[in-house]
Design goal:
This protein has 189 residues and is an alpha+beta fold. It has helices at 6-24, 52-63, 67-78, and strands at 36-40, 47-49, 96-105, 109-118, 129-132, 143-146, 152-155, 164-168, 185-188. It is built from three helices and nine strands; from the N terminus they run H-E-E-H-H-E-E-E-E-E-E-E. A hairpin with an 8-residue loop joins strand 7 and strand 8.
Length: 189
């Protein structure tokens, strides 16, 4: 029996090592879908875009006013000549508002989900309504930006159940370790 030439043995060993490293390497990630989504509080009409600016434009078109116009209208309603507080835009003819934006990463980074709908937020501690995020948005939220005087709570379960943190009444670049990447639904007040 003739011995196997050393060159053939070394080549086979290198080929096996190369094949092993290919098999052990992770597959390339699938192309990510549009990363900036807009959805109605009633769960309908979710649409995603390539940029945050496109998503905000779409939300503004859906509610019929820009964020600046929305905030200005809220401020005007809160300060009547008599000094009494009227409340939110819910009493106005067009009560649709942009409620808040939720961000994938801290410091308002990464993908976004902007929620809009009829505004019943009063800015207090009473829960007015809830929203369960679509599956691709569950367990990834790290920062939040409330609009329309809404108080946002984050929940680890669907339909406003499970562990909860909040309220977030101001721009929050870091929601903290308790709910970071654990949010499944939000309640609003």
């Amino acid at each position: 029996m003739s011995p196997v030439p050393r060159r053939l043995g070394a080549s086979a060993l290198l080929a096996a090592a190369a094949l092993g490293s290919v098999l052990a390497s992770p597959l390339p990630a699938a192309a990510s879908p549009a990363q900036h989504c807009v959805g109605d509080i009633d769960g309908s009409g979710q649409e995603c875009f390539d940029t945050y600016a496109q998503a905000i434009d779409a939300a503004e078109n859906r509610v019929g006013r820009t964020l600046a116009e929305q905030e200005r209208a809220l401020a005007e309603q809160e300060h009547t000549p008599s000094g009494s507080r009227i409340g939110t835009l819910a009493a106005a003819r067009n009560s649709n508002v942009i409620i808040g934006t939720y961000f994938e990463h801290g410091n308002y980074g990464g993908a976004t989900f902007t929620l809009h709908g009829d505004n019943t937020c009063q800015g207090g501690d009473d829960i007015e309504f809830w929203f369960t995020f679509p599956p691709e948005w569950q367990n990834i939220i790290s920062s939040a930006q409330p609009w329309a005087r809404c108080s946002l709570w984050l929940h680890a379960g669907p339909d406003g159940t499970g562990d909860r943190d909040g309220p977030y009444r101001e721009n929050t670049p870091d929601i903290g370790g308790y709910m970071n990447d654990r949010t499944v639904s939000t309640t609003l007040g």
